[in-house]
């Protein structure tokens, strides 16, 4: 009897730990206090690891680790996806990599030109590791890198130490095949999505896509002033979903499947555009467009920060469509 009680206690406690460590909750300040990383990288699929970022805005507490930093152990070197928001995050990720393999990091990929994808680049280039990005992301980095770095310093303070702007060292336009490893790894530009030069890393044998910012869940996606939501939906339907991925490591949120990221990315974009189209049809103005009903999505992290802005941006774009 007593045994049974302890058994139940262990199960309940284990469940609690699991929920705590795996849930996306923007109120959790840090899940890995011993590291600059927000969470410890986990091997979600064989040889495919990801350190899942906070589903919150970047902050001093999460060191700007609010996106997924992934790596693949290929059998002949390691491929890293995203250098993180600062030198210190790239270094912390490298320390984790060294704990699980002796294989050297041979390639770093920037999933786009956002700070949390590119600012750790100089950690890797000092080790002689090439950095690959889409040509549009490289252009964006040249134009906005300085501002991106300054914004990061603004919240990261002394944690920004060592971070120097370093652009990608290799670019591609449509498709890049990783030239080493025991299984094919394709770096794909599928079309316009969330931001300039968004790319996805596709493992055709395992049917895993490390999608980059084309796919979100657990938190609300941000629509930027230059995000073309109509094109994003088209890229999704024509290119991204037809990949036929069984597993998705999204840009933000835990690894999941296509149906789940579809609900909170594609379906959200379609929903918001439908609401704004109705508002425009009724002769509605911008000032009221901010408040179209998005309560269906109010359970997502960063809803409060982003929902009204997203609606305004879609209104501004759809006015001219
Ligand atoms: Zn992102």
Q: What's the gist of this structure?
A:
This protein is an alpha/beta fold and 321 residues long. The protein has helices spanning 2-22, 87-100, 115-118, 121-125, 135-156, 229-240, 258-264, 266-281, 286-289, 303-318, and strands spanning 42-45, 48-51, 69-73, 78-81, 105-109, 131-134, 170-172, 175-177, 186-188, 200-203, 208-216, 247-252. The model is unreliable at 14-20 (pLDDT under 50).
Notes on the protein architecture:
This protein is of the alpha/beta class and 321 residues long. It folds into 2 domains: 27-189, Metallo-beta-lactamase, Chain A (4-Layer Sandwich), CATH 3.60.15; 203-321, Metallo-beta-lactamase, Chain A. Helices cover 38% and strands 17% of the residues. The protein contains 10 helices and 12 strands. Helix 6 packs antiparallel against helix 8 (266-281), helix 7 runs parallel beside helix 8 and helix 8 packs across helix 10 (303-318). Zinc ion (ZN) is lined by residues 67, 114, 116, 213, 251-252. Zinc ion binds at residues 67, 114, 116, 213, 251-252.
Which features characterize this protein?
five-stranded mixed sheet, 321 residues, Metallo-beta-lactamase, Chain A, 2 domains, binds zinc ion, seven-stranded mixed sheet, alpha/beta
